[in-house]
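With this grant's support, we have paired protein sequences with backbone structure tokens. One protein thus recorded is set out beneath this paragraph:

_____
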Amino acid sequence: RADAGEYTCDTGDQQTTAAVLVKALPVLFKHELKNEEVEEGRTAVLHCELTKPDAPVKWRKGDRVLQPSDKYEIHQEGTRVELFIYDAEAQDA
């Protein structure tokens, strides 16, 4: 959106000005999450891909927003977003 604003063409004697409005495209899922089955004690990995790089995302389990910890690792690089769930237990389902 830094490109939005007024632009002027100036000949020295005359000027013409136009406004540029940049409409932001919504962030969509290019590849959605898929169900994952993992053995107890292993690492589960969930990943999806977005249409815009580095868009802000939140990971949730039910209503609870997940934060990086020994249990959860969150990676985001460009359009790819991943959640690692370490040492999977029954309550992680």
Notes: The mean pLDDT is 94. Residues 29-92 form a domain with the Immunoglobulin-like fold (CATH 2.60.40.10). The radius of gyration is 22 Å. The beta strands are 5-10, 15-20, 29-31, 44-50, 60-61, 64-65, 72-77, 80-85.
